Fold each of these.
Amino acid sequence: MNLLAYRDRDVFKQLFQQIEPDLIRIREKVGRKLRFMEVCGTHSVAFSKSGVRDLMSPYVELISGPGCPVCVTDQSDIDQMIAFASLQDVIVATFGDMMKVPGSHSNLEREKSNGADVRIVKSAYQAIDIAKQHPSRKLVFLGVGFETTAPGVALSLKKAREDKLKNYYVYSAHKLTPPALDTLLMDSTHQLDGFVLPGHVSVIIGRKGWVHLEQLNVPAVIGGFDAIDLLIAIGILAKQLEQTKRSVLNLYPRVVQEEGNLTAQRILAECFTNSPTKWRGFGVLDQSGLLIHSDYADYDAASRVITDKPVSKEIRGCRCGEIVKGKEAPIDCKLFAKVCTPTNPLGPCMVSSEGTCSTYYQYERVHDTVLLR
Amino acid sequence: MCLSVPTKVIEVFVNDQQARVDYLGARFIVGVALLECVQPGQYVLVHAGEAIQILDEEKALDGLALWKEMLGEA
Amino acid sequence: MSICYSSLREEAIIAVKGVGGIHLVCNAKLKHAVEKLRVRKRRPNKPFALMAKDWLVVKAYFEISDVEMEALKSAAAPIVLLKPKPEASRVLPLEIIAPGMKRIGIMLPYSPLHRLLFDDEIDWIVATSGNKSNHPIIYDNKDALQHLQGVADLFVLHDREIIMWIDDSVGQEVDGEFQLMRRSRGYVPEALAIPLPKKLEEGSVEWPTVLGVGSELKNTFCLLHNCKAFLSQHIGDIQTLESMQSQLKIEDHFMQLLKLKPHLTVIDPHPDYLISQEVQNRSSTGEITTIYHHHAHMAACMAENGIDTPVIGCILDGTGYGPDGSLWGCEIMVGDYISFERVQHLQPIVLPGGEAAIGHPWMMGVSLLHEAAENRNMLEEWAVECFPQYQSMFPIVFAQLDGKLPSPKVSSAGRLFDGISAILDICTESTYEGEAAARLSELLEASVNPADNIAVSERYPFESVGDQWNIGTMIGSIMNDRCQNVSKVMITRKFHHTLAAMILKGVNKARRNHGINSVVFSGGVWNNRYLQQLTKELLRKDGFSVYTHRKVPSGDGGIALGQAVCGLWRRMSDHVLIGSNESNRSIC
């Protein structure tokens, strides 16, 4: 089986030749460039790295939305995570991206170089192993991620219970993607024509997780990540604008199913409860966060691992809050690429490998044509 | 973080919780507890150490034909 | 030719067109001539090869075994590394010819023109490739006159056009076998037989033609057709557009010669390798797949030795991209052509300054001290002790070691050698790739002091933590020895013994967990004879079968072979061709 076919340059060129006339025509009809938003960090990187964002730019403004879970984590959560690191008897386990995210006063990497025990793990399972190796210390795993990551963390909670671990805790800053999207839709100043829905979140929640968009008649497609997937997503979205009745189309059927992953959904419901949660930039959104279920309260770092309550302050000049909503582009931030760079990041959007700013810094700066206004 | 990659299942462990997989030759172990039943030889999407879905080979092969069709019709 | 002889006597540098390209030649006995050549070629330290008038002259001045003589006199006429006798230093300025090295690369004249360069007085010449630095050897008369102006005083050219340039091959004897370190003139394009996967279906099998394009340094490519592998000549480092075009040109040449076109191309997944990017950017390459660097190393040694069952691989090299996105290079792995698994490896160590700092081994030295020092004071004390001349740069290096500035971590044997070489003040700046490591290992080439022949058990401590070797205690002990003025040779020997012990332990773990008894060595660090012989012996005593490279370079020159064979085997076992995440580059 040759999945490389989804990157075949010749097929890509042919498809683009087919799609381009449609894009020109629809742009004419609408009277301005089409405005689509991708809501997944991996999509942001894929569109930029493959050059599709730039290729589309004469017809489509492809705006990067809240696709990066690190970037939408509120400052108060970041500060709390860093506070765990300062406790003597705590080992903090986290995914790599969190290490350099600036808190109000410090970051995890700095805490580590000052002696805190902070370890990078590739999975929650690894964190469980570390907890087992150090029974006399508390292990706090930082749960940052969307619906794709949360099930793995849920499994770790189940494992902790099964293995009767007394020292494993999770600080859950997990978030659900649809509420953010819904909020952006309600924003009349945004003028978004359609969405490229996150491919891997959809693996978990299924096409059914987005079907409510059909009631709003919003063009939306679930897209894959290879170059041809990306091209098709934009092409179909554009065509949907010409139709009166739109539906949420699954263009990534090789892994996204109608129902999604039911096992994962069940486990999420078992271990987490949907709650209102504060997002960077969005403020508090209803039913948008996954807090640890009362059945698993023993493993909830928020209530079981006590720290001093950190005082949060905003980062001066940082526009991450507006950037994650797609209201501003990285280039609109005065700090972007001047003071705030991947080696010296001031905000999470530049730190995370899937943050909008770091993506644009790496892949979009050479093109003069990138203008997202 | 969102590093979902299709990898080939080599061996599912007896407890059905973990499997040995192959990605471009590199073999390692992932969790498979989120999948109902996965078989060696199948391809799975892995995210943060857990397999989250089995790759539907038929749909993958149909993909390109489907796109061409949809573009013509849609 | 009389002009030649008198010029050589007068310390001239002559550009001579041979069979594979232009050589720059001077009288090896004249110190100033050799120095002049170094200056003009901008090559301060990398060793020059010598060409001797005949084998009698070689025998008079160099120690030479039967194996070495056979290689020297063979039709391939490679450069062979030989130890000079005391007499040699009286006639040849050895320290200028090969700074810091105990052995010299010697070859015999391999064409009538070369033979004519010698006369009664001139019996030793330096013969180095005529090229602009980091460019392939020049082989065209016009190019020679243009680019070597100012470098050569005299040009000896002929009108037989060279269609395909080729460098000299280089090799050494290890344990009674002649092992090639660079496979080129005289050996290329002879094919190597490789094991094929067993296809269970009946009927004749259509084997796809596979092209492995290699990695970055000391690159070669490999065309695999049916059961024959055609490894190209040494092309060089593919770090510039010109060198990449060079490789593409040779690829075309081979494909025309053999009338083959690849169905499958295999690349190294390192995101910065030019040749990998080039293959992915071409629109019509057929299928592409990716094989990891150290997997390719292991496979290359397996293929050369005709092995098709799983092995334990001891892969020690300078740098290579690993499946977890970090740089690997000191690995015990198990696997076969299809897949591999990491069993044990060197702990990741901060490489201050990243890949650019590979030329400054002192930085790696500081990084090693950082692993060993118990506290900041000790680190600073040691750093000042070892590298007083770099004190002004310490703040930046420390900031990287503390994680305040970003820098990658590497688990690399090559970098470990570099760091220790710097700590022992053998080489703190590398003027060519691998210089620090080479100078360190060369120390063990000519010990005459019997007190230096310490037992293998005399070594430093190290820790195995999980699947990782930690070397903090080893470095600490090295510093102790250093402070107590233990000789550099002794410290180096103990370090080698420690590394061998680490490998023995790792290989034993692999055998326990996987039931495999065959071991392959691959990666450039195995060109280190002392390490190779020592480790082989230890493993064989423990009942392992050990296989090394002979005809194919152990370094990155062999990667392409491993890539091609793995690509073929994986393809035939129906693995999905998906490229890699990193390879999803611009398609427009």
Amino acid sequence: MSTTTDIVYEPSVIEGKPALAKVDADIIKPMNELPNKKFLIAISFTLTLLLIGAASLAYTFYRGVGVWGNNNPVGWAFDIVNFVFWVGIGHAGTLISAILFLFRQKWRTGIARFAEAMTIFAVMTAGLFPALHTGRPWLDGYLLPYPNQHSLWVNFTSPLLWDVFAVSTYFTVSLIFWYIGLVPDFATMRDKIVNNSVVNKIKKTIYSVLSLGWRFSNRHWSHYEMMYLVLAGFATPLVLSVHTIVSFDFAVSILPGWHTTIFPPYFVAGAVFSGFAMVQNALIIIRKVYDLEYIITLDTLEKMNKIIIVTGMMVGYAYAMEFFIAWYSGHDAELFAFINRAFGPYAWSYWIMVSCNVISPQFFWFKKLRRNIPFMFIIAVFVNVGMWFERFVITVTSLSRDFLPTSWDYYVPTIFDFGLLLGSFGFFFTLLLIFTRTMPVVSIAEVKAVAEGSQPAHHGLGHKEAH
Amino acid sequence: MINNDTKLWKSLKQYQRNENSIEKTHHEFQQGVTDDFDLKTLPNQSRRKFLAALGATSAILTTACSDYYDKGEIITYNKKPESITYGKANYYASTLNDGKGILVKTREGRPLKIDGNPEHPVFKGKIDAAAQSTIMDLYDPGRLRFPVKKSDSKLLLFQNELPRADWAKIDKEIVEKLNEAVSNGKEISLITGKVISPTQKKLFEEFASKFPTFKVYSLEQFNDNTRRKAWFDCYGTKELPSINWEKADTIVALESDFLGSEGNTAEQIRRYTLRRDVNNPDKFNRLFVIEADYSLTGAIADYRLKLHPSEQIDLLLSLLNEMINRHGFTLPAGVNIDLSKYNYGKFVKEHNFNQTAADDLIRDIATKRSKVLFYAGDTLPYEVHIVTNLINTVLNNNELFDYNNAENLYLDYTNYDEWRNLVNKMNAGQVGVLIHFDSNPVYLLPSDLNYKQAAEKVPTLISLLELPNESILNSRYIIPINHSLESWGDFSIRKGIISLQQPIIAPLHDTRQKEAILLNWMSNNVEQYSHDIYHKYLMNNWQNNIYPKLNQGFDFFNFWYSALHDGVVTFNEPINNNLSFNSTIVNNLKLKLDKSGITVKLKPAFYLQDGKQANNGWLQEIPHPITKVTWDNYAMLSPATAKKYDLKFAEDVTDQITDMIEININGRKVSLPIFIQPGMVDDFISIELGYGRSLVGEVGANVGTNANVLLSSKDGISDKIYTNAQITKTGKKFNLISTQEHHSLDDEFVKDIHIKRHIVQEYTLPFYTEFLQKYEHVKKELKQKYADDAVKYKEELKKEKEHLLGHHNYDIKSIYPLFEYTGVKWAMGIDLNKCIGCGACIASCNVENNIPVVGKDQVAKGREMQWMRVDTYFSGTPEEPVTSLMPMLCQHCDKAPCENVCPVVATTHSPDGLNQMTYNRCVGTRYCSNNCPYKVRRFNFFDFRNDFADGYYRKDTLELLNNPEVTVRSRGVMEKCTFCIQRIQEARQEAIKQNRTIRGEDVITACQEACPSSAITFGDMNDLNSDVSKIRENPLGYYVLETLNTRPNVTYISKVKNVNITTEVHSEHHH
């Protein structure tokens, strides 16, 4: 029933009116230059972390998981905390690129590619932990359902097995989705490279292969768009399912503090929350370093902050609801588990979690703070810390004090636990840094599509007013 | 190739020399297949060549990949001994050197497990945790392996550094020294433990006749010497009767841990718990423990009253006053003490005793009379023992003492005057040769005797020992001796009972039996040692001296071999039990004992006793039943005392805030971490001895603190209790390691969780008897009502039962149908009325199931591996705590939460109801352990056999310890109690052999076998006549955390306390 006067124009998602060639050049620039000093400092830092992780892992393999602090009631600690944390980080990418795509949120274009890459790397990082946390990692193959001469099969009732499927499916689909999105950009890269040196020749060959013969034809575009839409539709339920299934690791058990039905939505909200915070942290640096402020705009960052505050409050609601249900259940062990979280020996971690996850995003109610880049960077760091602690609180405090008070014990991490945590950051950021120098961090094709003047439009019909 | 000349034949045809068939067998396969297989002649792509190459490659690859550690060699018998069948255990009866009658399981000649000898009338098949664990001492890598002659005074730390001496040479030298000592008129002193072996006693006598200056000293740090002396002074006889524990209706234990660490505990527990059968509530005995310390016996007691040891006399005399004046008892003739100043009522008020307990005590005395036993602890002063004897005489409870089986001792323990005398002689150069005969006087004797300094002056010091110890000093000769299981002997712990010791295995090292060494020195031909010298001596002694007295109907050899088979010989040795009380001893008794300042009580370490077995990792690692501390001793004191001296203690294991204190008794000082124990008398400290061994082997060295330095031969109200001590806070902190967190009883947040969650349910005897009547009535009614619906009957009965017990009835349903167990279904029952918490089950499980020792650092991290544990819960107030003990092991739940979460199906359920663990399949996700509500699963965080003490388990001879019937688990694998599946399998094989189905009673689990009180029952719950199914039907039976619907197969019988309170002790109140 709308009339022509009701037409509202979406504000432009990129700032200014850049020439399409400038968009190409700005995005491709990092790939055509030798790494600068800043990059080298950054990658040597992340490689150091990675080495610390590798050394910790080597020692773990040599002696056994006993080098960690895990003990008898606390069978899972940093190993699974890190896993859940990184799977959570891996949520923002596909959510931005798939769900926001389906909802036609054009502002996603500046950040989608980068967020997707983060998803891939975060899931890769996460995937390391279940594999290496086992007592006998050389037998991890037993977790896969493969036909064997022992006629042994995996246990389909175990949530750990669901994890194997959920995470690997999510990883596969995210990878394909990411790659499909990259194809037109690879073609652009291929076309932009002048075949004048050996290095460029190699580069051109690689990009040629990766672009799968893309010729920017109308036919290609039309298939591509359909394919992208289908994949987005396919990836969307996976965004919700992965963390749902990860949460089953806890929810399906009978442990007080784990055995709750609120976990699936609560975990997904938390994952989106932490994922957005991590995207925020990385992008704030990337847009500055690679001069992409006009593409990854402050408006976009503000929108991300809005999602952070929404998901932060969902998480806060879940914290409160857990307490309420624990009391409402009338089950002594259940209520004890939650009071113990807030006031027991691990109270410090609980209050770190609450202050970082529930209190710190509240600052984003103020527009000024929401648009203040240093401030939002700090809040995003807080959210990441808080979300890591959320997993710590759930995993460790619940295990450390369960049903029989005689088997309670306190968990203290060792340097190898911290080594692996640092190593996971090293692994993730090293991959991310390599990514920024080998592939376009922003989707060239999509940005050009939303740049002013790129789409057929009726000029003069209130367009100016939209600004 | 079959030779045509052979006499072998494979078939009748071949036998008939059918050329055709021979030809055919020659070419078994198609022509051209078996012969002429030459790779070179084959084409390149040949299938056969490919297969050959594949075979060769895979053979190389598998050999290269498979053997990732050396599994050693297996050497088979060249000729199989007749008595040995591979894979089948043999059992031999024998005796340990401390007189405990044992039955040893061997496989292929290798001793594997020690249990009590069922034929032994004292032990009846049960022995304590320390004896169970002795098997590890046999294989201890630290054992001395050959004799050593030392020329310098360097301490013997690593025996391999010292050169091996020649037995013949040193024997000859020693005999020269002995003769020299005799000719110079110098004493040959020998220090041994308690002398309870008749043949050893004879040996000493003969040795003394050969070397006239020979003198034997007997040293046991923990002994019943005070009781013996008091008995002798009161009744004029050295024959100390043993106690008929099961005949006492009421036992009043004064500072005595007779169910824990004092005396022959396995026997005492067994006999005490005979009167704790819930099916016979009328027969329940009642235990009063009156103590200052907090002992296991105190924790078990029906009534526990706090009293300083010096005030025990006052209590006894005020009771005596009450008995004489109110209840018609009379004092023995001639006893003349003024009882009028001892008023029981006043005493009770002054000491803030629980009024019900105090009333019941005097009421029991008045009504049960001669069925009341007063029993004073070993550490109590002589005076208390005298008054205890007096009160027992007044009670006329002669029936409670077994005079015919008196506690045997062939040689009195050496007293401090005699020790002082010896030290003086050594200082004066009057001792020529000093022999440490498997004893450790340097460590055990009070330091004020200055034994060590004196012993160093003796020209020839000879140490006979298994493991190095502190008394080696500058021994000239260090002589390795056999373990109990490598020795011959005879031991008589009671009059009329002699148990025999036979070697179960040949000596593992170049060692000799200590008696054989003495015997050899006595012989004329020292250099010609014969290994059976003591065996012959023992048999001769029996044939000539013991056997004739026994009046056996058959000849000696028949007697001897049947005695060896049974391991024990009993006979009548009647003893005068018509004793008269010596009144003068009481009349001249000092009745006021000192209690000023802080009092320190020194007591044996719960499992290590005097520390002789300190190198036994299993014993170091079994948690103390009350404090749960492992690998350490500590100064135990009350919360109020800790507050008074501002001492802090790690309530949970979050940090190292346990303070250390210095204890000073007349200048004798020691620093110890504190342990706050509710229920102790204020200004009272108890310390376990047996720790802080400096020289014992790599496992036990420097574990804990040597508190023996507090011992004194002069002061103290008894030889183990000292008053006037001072304590100061040192400012140092200590990390005391325990397997359970300790929570203050003031901490409302964690208080009484075990009651709220129905982990422990306890009732009082009056409540229980009342309940039982109602229950039987209801049962009868329901049986009529639901005569044809068994399921409904059971449901309704349970509902009614819960109602009568005052519990909420949880109607637990499952959405899945339950699996139907049609055949045998294994189940266990644990009667908490009988469980004392002694830990014998833990020790037995350790040995049976190859449970590794993990070491203090790993226990600190919470990674102890014991499959069986005894949980300790406290409730009540810091002044009057209530202790509840509960053995906890895998509950083998029908709906086991561990099973459905394992991603690789490594833990599964068997059709006979076992929760099984497939080690090979386990990848170690630890999810099962996380999901186990009982936290009974144990994860191998490391390969503990490599990890503990630098690969201690891989060291030579300790590898022999492993039970071949149980897999040795590797790193990264989850494990837990299996209900001794190897024993079930063995029984099943036996049943198959006999062509029948397996029966529940065919299987006895290791913990069940060891339990001195038979608190553990195991069997087939589907067999309605079995003990275990009756326990499951017992109205006091319950499952731990029943509301989780895990449907455990371990049933606990709630504890019933024999106290005069009609309400239940523990129960929820929200119905």
